[in-house]
Amino acid sequence: MDFTLTVEQRGLVDSTRSLLTRRASVEHARRLIDSTEGFDADLWKDGTDLGWPALGIPERDGGLGQQVVDLALVCAELGHGLAATPFIPVSVAADALATSTAENKSKLLQLISEGSLIVGWAFTEFGRPWGTLGISTAAVPQGGGYRLSGTKVNVQDADAAQFLVVDALLDGAPARFLVPTDARGVEVVRQQTLDLTRSYCDVRLDDVLVDGSALCAAGADAAAAITRSMHLHTVLVCAELVGVGQRLLAMTVDYVKERVQFGRPVGSFQAVKHKCADMRIWLQGSTAATYHAAMVLDAAPENAGPESAADVERAVSVAKAYTSDAAGRIAGEALQLHGGIGFTWEHNLHLYLRRARCGALLSGDARFHRETLCRLLESASV
After folding, report:
1. What distance in Å separates the CA atoms of residue 222 and residue 135, rounded to the nearest whole number?
2. Where is the Acyl-CoA dehydrogenase/oxidase C-terminal domain (predicted)?
3. Which residue pairs from 288-291 have beta carbons closer than 8 angstroms and sit at least 24 positions apart in sequence?
4. How confident is the model over 131-154, as pLDDT tens digits?
């Protein structure tokens, strides 16, 4: 595959990094730690002007109609700048709505692309596996509508969203619903997590009544749509980890060039050079695996057959398994090479380490995706 950026993609990357540099997004993220705000609203507004929420939305619905790889490029820059924005949940939710049967979806997508509406994705459940088999939230038909009950966890920026795409079981089969966060029976509770610069929430659904138009997909269509959302979310998380790794490597190289010990910069010592080289290799592998997964997902037909679906699953799991491990190693080496200053609250390194550790667990950890790859190998050999 050709990893060379087009002129448009290079412009997207440059404009995003320029905005994040100008806005000093790390300092803004620090100010969010002790605040009740879940993300940097001003940065999100500026990002909306650059077209962030509109990137993956079809042109017929007011978006820019770009591909997954373009979303991944932006995610990498957001990770590099440690930006606190709802880009990932909004992108996944917008993609889910674009392929749904929801009423007024064009209007909703238009509002999302304008930045005036935030929609999140409520999928993960406590103690349940990553996948459709982990869904236990129940939906029951009632009076022309549906009653939803269950609890979702790790829902990014749910406390700032006006709607949530909620995945549940309807008559024992997967189904998707668009649920207003202000509906009666919806309780959003912000979690305390390792990543202090991002908002993750528990969403409790206590006999939440929604009308019939809230149903976005059911049965086989819902299962396919949920799988698509899982793959997209995983690729975007990997891309963010790539950006985090880029920043950690750059911070570390700059530091070892300046830190003097025994009359020499510590970066001149062979052992330190080897560690930086290892970080670079892990980062290059993560970058290649992530963008390969994004391109495979872009190339997959809408109604992919078993073989094409397996290719996507394989590429996505390779990317997440490798990138999750690599991000942890890069963060660990960066911390060691920074020495004592790396352990201080004032230095930004720990904020990136926190983002890396949390990202490694989202969308299934490395162990989960290695097990997925084993199952794919077993099925291919039968």
Report:
1. 12
2. 226-374
3. 288/3, 289/238, 289/315, 289/318, 289/319, 289/322, 289/323, 290/72, 290/235, 290/238, 290/239, 290/241, 290/242, 290/319, 290/323, 291/1, 291/3, 291/69, 291/72, 291/239
4. 899 999 999 999 889 999 999 999
Radius of gyration of the chain (CA): 21
Domain covering 119-218: architecture: Beta Barrel (2.40)
Query: Cα dihedral sign for 289, 12, 86, 38?
Result: positive
pLDDT of residue 76: 97
CATH code for residues 7-114: 1.10.540.10
Tell how far CA 362 is from the center of its chain: 8
The 3-state DSSP class for residue 273 equals helix
Domain boundaries 221-381, CATH class: mainly alpha
pLDDT digits 0-9 by tens, 281-339: 999 999 999 999 999 999 987 666 666 889 999 999 999 999 999 999 999 999 999 99
100 three-state secondary structure: coil
